[in-house]
Amino acid sequence: MSADERRESVIRAAVTEFARGGYSATSTEAIAKRVGVSQPYLFRLFPNKQAMFLAAAERCLVETRQVFEEAADGLEGETALHSMAGAYQRLIADDPDKLLMQMQVYAAVAAAEAAGDHAFGESVRAGWLELFDSVNLALGADADDATTFLAYGMLANTLTSLGFPAGHRIWSGFYTSAQPVT
Fold this sequence. Notes:
Elements: H1 3-25, H2 28-35, H3 39-45, H4 49-72, H5 77-94, H6 96-114, H7 122-138, H8 143-161
Helix pairs in contact: 1-2, 1-4, 1-6, 4-5, 4-6, 4-7, 5-6, 7-8
C-alpha cells in the first residue's frame, strides 16, 4: 500500500473511531489498530491527533458537499432542494458514522473554543462555509433558502442522533424528501 493509500485508510478509520468516541476519548492507538499499523506509523502520516481529527472532519464535510452537488446537478429551486434532502437522508442512513462524526466535530470545536483554542475550528468553519456556498448556489443563490435548508438539516441531525425513528410524529413537519429513510 502506498503512503497515500495508507493515509486514506487512516482518515476512514479516524472517521469511524472519532464518530464513536469523540475527540478526547479516541486514542490514536484505536485508529492505528483499526488500520492495522503501528502508532508511530500514524505519526509519519499525520503530525498529531488533532491533524487526524481535522482530516476526518474535512472528509465528512467534503463528502456531504459532494452529495449535495451531485443531487442538485442540473436541477433548480424546490426540485434541487428535495433532491439534496433525500440524498442527505440516504447518506446518513447508509453511513451513520458520517452523522456521528459531524456531531462530534461540533462538540470538539465548541470545547476548543471554550478553552481558548480558536485555531482548532478554523478549517471546520472554512469547510462549513464551502458547504453553505454550495447549497446556496444550488438553491439559486438565495441565502434564506440555503439557511433554511441547512437549519432543517441540523434539526434532522439532532433528531436522528437522538434516535427518533422514521415515522415518528416529530418528523411530520418535514417535507417528505427530508424525512428519514426507512
